[in-house]
Design goal:
With 439 residues, the chain is an alpha/beta fold. It contains 18 helices and 13 strands.
Length: 439
Amino acid sequence: MTTPRIRWADAAFGALLLAATACGGSGSSGGSGGEKVTLTYRLWDEQQKVGYDKVMAAFEKSHPNIHVNIELLPWDQYWLKLTSDAVAGTGPDVCWMTVGYFPEFVTKGVLADLSSLGIDTGQYKKTVVDGYTYQGKLYGVPKDWGIVGLLYNKDLFKKAGVTMPDKLTWAPDGSGTLLPLARKLTVDAAGKHPGDSGFDAGSVKQWGFASWNHYQTQWMNWVNSNGGKLIDKPFGKWAMNDDASVQGLQWGVDLVNKYHVSPPATQTNPPTGKVTAMFERGEVAMFPANNALLPFVAPESNFEIGVTTMPEGPAGRSVNMAGGADTVLAGSKHPQEARELVKFLGSRDAQKMMADSGFAFPALNGLEQGYVDFWKAKKIDVAPFVEESKGLTYNLPVVTGFNSFESKMNQIFNDMYLGKITPKAAADQAVQEGNATIK
């Protein structure tokens, strides 16, 4: 999905703060004198809404004075409307939040401080908690998380006579176990592999690996697992043009243009669905993906899907964890009831309901097995995702202006994967232009 590029107008800044503190919230039937309160809960995932219908029914049973109206909006519309609602003071009481948008909203005073709820943040995934903490205060109750792992086509592995090793490794110089495996799984029209005499990179019918311009599942992981850094600190500045970061970027490009084990960028550059479709058609053997993609990929694939952990780089394995949170808008007309709702959504009962139905890994520790069992029944072992979550994980860059910069960032790295500019030039340009969007 494409994230909208929203720039916050300076003229709206003052109005936004005013709306956050004086207006807003859903229309309701009141709340004083024992009257029933109606809260609006906004989300963007149609599949997960099915689960939240049941969760809200449980909440309403234990809170008979509160009714929750679930409002579903498509991803693009969601952020455009939430932004305009925040300015106008007409937003929902409680809404989903992502790390990419969190800095923009929290620094504008739009989100309520939830520290007073007394939630034991040590019981949740630390990466998710960190993603919604600002100036030492919690502004989002951790909801769930997704993580990048490696999906692979078991049928293609069997056909090639290879097995997935217990651990995949890589290094900028091409050493490690990933590249040799990807070569064995890359086949041209004549049945030759990269490195074979006569191999034709222009007539490949099956690719061993999918390396392409997708920051969450691709080059940001290479940067971090090579010891590089995306930003200097949370709410800081972009800093991914150091030597280690550039080497990680170079590795992602080399898989395509030097080693020829991944499709050319002319076939894979965004929109993102291109590579997903190639994997579903059996044209790619190994496909880095967030576990949240499984409900979409599994039904479309006529082969057995395997899951393993992402390859380890020189600095170990470092993978993106995309955590979601429930936030309360500071302008809610019913802040106490809204806080009761987010506290319930962060509870064991609520998160277990969502996990056991296979919607998402719960942010609350110790409930992963329900999600694992759900997918095991569908013959997909997602335990490697859990293993990764216990290691080194990182958030998408927690900086203001990320979503304003995203479109330009993708253009820069599209050119890098196409070989139009070097990884060093791409990194330098990205740092310069990314930092220009930070306020």
